[in-house]
Design goal:
mainly alpha, Arc Repressor Mutant, subunit A, 3 strands, Four Helix Bundle (Hemerythrin (Met), subunit A), 224 residues, globular, 3-stranded antiparallel β-sheet, 2 domains
């Protein structure tokens, strides 16, 4: 059976909207995802929603409750730490490859991404959290740019998915570490320009672990 391209586009658009709403905390952990309500909120069919929620379930962002339906996946300290460890493993490997393979175009992408992130960090540091989503989006773009010369699309896509799960914890806790994180980003940029792999790996480990501990301090989590 052929697929109507317009229906496919609507389904993909709705999937991205719901996914973003989960990641950025508009749909909070544990919230019941009632199909009739979602149908009105996202202006799409129940059958399309079922497909989308099953897709998000496979990504670990939605929990399936059998006959009782779906809910936004819960959060826990154990899951945050596991997600952070996986992010560090993937990003460290990709960072090493990028430092070896990066060219002038890679440097330009990285400098541009850092500029946008640094500007948004200044906004956050002023106490204005109204643009928190833009801040995290630019954070995502910077770290993707950092590893964008790794040579593996699969690695990039896997890292992006893991980063999104990590980002969800930061958004739920609204965890901004201020000048500490901003300085680490600047140091990561400097290490990249020097192709200093050892310093880059150490900075990345400190950066990610610092984000975990700050998020947990902002919102203590219970496992289970």
């Amino acid at each position: 059976m052929s697929i109507d391209p317009s229906n496919e586009t609507v389904a993909e658009s709705t999937y991205k909207r719901i996914r973003a709403d989960i990641i950025f905390g508009r749909l909070l952990p544990g919230r019941k995802l009632k199909l009739d309500k979602l149908k009105d909120d996202y202006a799409t069919s129940v059958s399309t929603l079922r497909e989308i929620l099953n897709r998000l379930h496979s990504e670990g962002l939605v929990a399936a409750e059998g006959q009782r339906g779906f809910e936004v996946a819960g959060i826990s300290e154990a899951d945050l730490r596991e997600t952070a460890e996986l992010r560090l493993l993937l990003e460290t490997h990709a960072l090493t490859q990028s430092f070896e393979n990066g060219d002038v175009e890679w440097e330009a992408r990285l400098v541009s991404a850092h500029y946008k992130l640094a500007r948004m960090e200044q906004v956050m540091a002023s106490g204005d959290t109204s643009q928190a989503e833009d801040w995290k989006r630019y954070d995502w773009e910077f770290h993707q740019a950092l590893i964008s010369a790794c040579g593996s699309k699969l690695l990039m896509n896997t890292h992006a998915a893991v980063f999104d799960k990590y980002l969800r914890y930061q958004m739920v806790a609204l965890s901004y570490r201020g000048d500490v994180a901003a300085e680490e980003h600047q140091q990561l940029l400097d290490a990249a320009m020097r192709r200093d792999q050892e310093t880059g790996r150490k900075l990345l480990a400190r950066h990610i672990q610092g984000g975990v501990e700050h998020a947990l301090a902002r919102r203590p989590l219970t496992d289970g």
